[in-house]
Amino acid sequence: MNPKYLAIHGQRTKHSGDSDDIEDYNGLSRRSPFLAFAMLVFLLSLAGVPPLAGFIGKLYIFTAAMKEGLIALVAIGGVNIVISLYYYLVVVKKIYINPAKDASAIPVPFPLKAVVMITIAGVLILGIYPGPVMDWTATATELFSHLTGP
Length: 150
Known about the structure:
Blueprint: H1 3-16, H2 28-31, H3 33-47, H4 53-67, H5 71-96, H6 110-128, H7 131-144
């Protein structure tokens, strides 16, 4: 499970029982609008929706594959993006449209809220302005590339 979701999942299960059932996300938007919005941002980023970090990651991967002539890989990746978007939107539907089994609010302590807000900001910033991070990773790659040998 992606670390971004662990915080949300942990807080949800703490107040809804220790279940990993996807149906337990039903109505999360009514129980905790903040956690629901965070899940929406994270799932859309995973799907590669612009202007989120996941889009930039997929763009760089597909650009590199195209430069190497791996057209079939890019086509398969595109099909997988469409399939994954369907599954992520099923979860979003459960969060925003399906009624909640339990209507009690899920409290979000300040430290968790701060961490999730910082993570949302990171996902947005990396999606909108990835340049500095990409420059840093390119420099780090060049710096350590000699360690792998010829």
